[in-house]
Amino acid sequence: MQDILLLMQDPTAWIALITLIVMEVVLGIDNLIFISILTNKLPPENRESARRIGIGLALVMRLALLGTVAWIVQLTTPVFEAFGHGFSWKDMILIAGGLFLVWKATKEIHHNVDPADHEEDFIASSVTTGFTAAIGQILLLDLVFSVDSIITAVGMTPHLPIMVVAVIVAVTVMLVASGPLARFIEKNPTIVMLALGFLLMIGTTLIAEGAGFHVPKGYVYAAMAFSALVEVLNMLSRRKRQREKALKQ
Questions:
Q1: Global pTM?
Q2: Could you give the CA distance from residue 49 to residue 60 in angstroms, rounded to a whole number?
Q3: pLDDT reported for residue 2
């Protein structure tokens, strides 16, 4: 308790907390996009609960990993070497998660382009199986994003209370934003394709990071922001044409 009080009186601790919260929220965007796309494929009555369960699992997983900080740090220790690069457990988790994201995004893009193959989608096979499958996939990606998130937190501050507060705030933001984001994606079909493109890029980035090729996160998020801006301009243009067409009728 005394350590926490001392931290509250330290300006550098507050700066670290604010910086870490921003970083955790930004890192959580990837997780949130995946959850929004996945839960939108469920029946309407199951979507909200699936989102809450998925984000709740993300919080539990992050807090559990924070309780094993010493073990998390060891995840960056190389386990074996190949092609001149030492692969750690973190690298292998990132590669596995990246491959899953690339596969999932490619599969969803295929279903959007060719809806006739919809029966192949194991998420839509039934309400019960769909809900279970969705939660299972969310849990898998929660693990990948949680490991990346906690290792980032450990690298930014040595103080566990700051990490815990930052994670709780970031996940709370995810929880609040999940509903509006999912509804926005559902109402704007072209956003779905853009979001799937983001997931492809994120998956490729995870694979590259795991293979030892550092990709500056700033470039990735700048590309995402630019693409989103172009799509917003397209949406405004479409709405203007629709209004003009309605007036002419």
A1: 0.66
A2: 16
A3: 47
